[in-house]
Amino acid sequence: MQEIRQGREAAFTELYARYSTSLLRYFTRMLWNNRALAEDMFHDLFLKIIHNSQQFDTNRKFSTWVYSVAHNMCKNEYRKRQNQRLDGIEVKQAHDLDRALDLLFAYDKLTVLLETLEETDKTIFLLRYEEELSISQISQVVFMPEGTVKSRLFYLRKHLAMELNEYKVVLKEKTR
Amino acid sequence: MNTHEWKEYEDFEKLLTEKSYSELTMHELRLVSQFVSSQQEYENMRLSGLEMKKWFRDNPITNKGDESLLKLKQAFRQQQPAVNYSLPKVWIGYAMVALLFGFGGWWLGKSEPAVPLTRVEKILMHDTVYLTSKPDTIFRERIIYKDRPIVLSTGNRQPEAPNTKGVSMKEKEELDKLLVSGSD
Predict the structure, then answer these.
(1) CB contact under 8 A, A42 and B13
(2) CB-CB: which of B9, B52, B76 is closest to A129?
(3) Handedness of CA B5, B10, B11, B13 (dihedral sign)
(4) What is the DSSP string of B91-110?
(5) A115 close to A32: Cβ distance less than 8 angstroms
(6) Contact at 8 Å (CB) between A128 and A142?
(7) CB–CB of A24 and B59 under 8 A?
């Protein structure tokens, strides 16, 4: 980051190479698999890095900082859209089993499960299991104590296990 | 779920990924029991976790964004000043300080009254040493006359040698002269 501050383009390219895929992935998963929107947000994020490089505290870990910014951007986007969308279909908390099953057949079980998660839970889940950030880093990104992050992760895992188990059972019944 | 401090949650997560319930040691079983109440629950969580990882692998999101990178690079260049002044600034600073000192020195030198300078020239001179020597031999001619007692005998006069040559009057005179001038 210091080199970026000094205007070294090579440093910026290196940073882009290191974080672009994971950040684009994070945005895509967070923003209802809307690739175009994710790319816009991703582009905006890198512009923020360029314009606000002087504000970055070099004592902090870059990945934590950049995910905090990304998380806040997603939060704003969620605020804009109160209802979550999945390719035009409003998902809202899919407690209705039949509707959920339709979605599961149409799409993918984990995609749907992810879509049903609340925004912060989704962030915690993705950062931990896909981006493999540490609990401490996640707690800094979402501004929560580590204990809370751990308990949320545990309940998410439990929820995931339960949902997948139910899905398997219903899937068996439907395919009979 | 029992209330506990979540200290060992990360270890629990690790066990879920690495070991099935049957592979757990006694110590690990104790740890796991803080989070799940049955083997079934543990196995469900474990399988769902593995499935989730597989799903992430099977649904990759990649960035092919060379175009995006190019645009961002352009933005990056625009953000930077046209010339990077960081290095030249330092050199300009050094130059300014040098100029300041130079001017200060010149000004101080100018304000003092001029002192006539005496030109001192160095000349290299070679010394000549003349070695004198005394003549080895000093010749001095000197005639030393010594008194010689004249024994005059009257009675016992020795007979003259027959071959003795006599002194003529002329020679006697000269001898007398010599006798007079020879005394120092």
Answers:
(1) no
(2) B52
(3) positive
(4) HHHHHHHHHHHHHHHHHHHH
(5) yes
(6) no
(7) no
